[in-house]
């Protein structure tokens, strides 16, 4: 269990970490911020590339609103869940390091915290095959967290979101299952869309979005997970697909993904 970064900022809520697997590596840690009062809602929020859930949680809960209140004080009934991406091999970084005169010194630095590998964030269509294994594994992991949280509060009171690569992973998690489209909301910050050209060719038909996404990711629906989520979330069903409110935002000064790219991402996502 990690100590609270600022106990005065978050009141009686606690920052703690637990793992969803037996692996005790940093890549498996999930940081939990408990609600100050009665637990009514849950937010599952994914960090960006080369970041960690605990670091993002500390940043969120160190910050204050204009009225001086912390996030926990503004939303006292929300449980916050910050998963951490596994440490994954970066093909592009390995390629760059192999050409360096410091290749031996940099050995091991090609393994970084990321939800999936990507050759070039500015041009994610390059070597798209690198993204699939990580996306498959990360989506499965996030779905297990959604499943776990759906046993505590109804699915429609859970919100999924992320920033940068975390948002890209979260949007695919959302769209890859029609059940997840029954979530209470989605928050996306400063992101980009993997397989954008393929996504643009998908017709805006809510009934088939999940199957198209599964085709892109070369996956199939996990029936057991679906059944558990349905049984734990009364009133949420296939007919609720497409009702999830979505908030997307992007900074004007993002040096990684410029705003004009986000405009396309926002438009395509709104079609869904």
Helices and strands: which structural class? alpha/beta
**What does the average pLDDT come to?**
76
Rounded Rg? 19 Å
Instruction: Give me the count of strands.
Output: 9
CATH homologous superfamily title = Alpha/Beta hydrolase fold, catalytic domain
User: Spans of 5+ residues with little confidence (pLDDT < 50)?
Assistant: 1-14, 17-27, 224-241, 262-272
Largest sheet features:
7 strands, mixed
Form type:
globular
Which strands sit side by side, in order, in the main sheet?
Answer: 1-2-4-3-7-8-9
CATH architecture: 3-Layer(aba) Sandwich
Helix-residue proportion = 25-40%
Structure, briefly:
The chain is of the alpha/beta class and 272 residues long.
Can you give a write-up of this model?
With 272 residues, the chain is an alpha/beta fold. It has a single domain, classed as Alpha/Beta hydrolase fold, catalytic domain (Rossmann fold, 3-Layer(aba) Sandwich), CATH 3.40.50. Helices cover 35% and strands 15% of the residues. It contains 10 helices and 9 strands. The strands form 2 sheets. It has a 7-stranded mixed sheet with strand order 1-2-4-3-7-8-9, sandwiched between helices. Helix 5 packs parallel to helix 9. The radius of gyration is 19 Å and the shape is globular. The chain starts with 6 loop residues before the first helix and ends with a helix. The N terminus and C terminus are likely disordered. One of its GO terms (molecular function) is palmitoyl-(protein) hydrolase activity. It holds the Pfam family Abhydrolase_2. InterPro entries: AB_hydrolase_fold (IPR029058), LYPA1-2/EST-like (IPR050565), PLipase/COase/thioEstase (IPR003140). Belongs to the AB hydrolase superfamily. AB hydrolase 2 family.
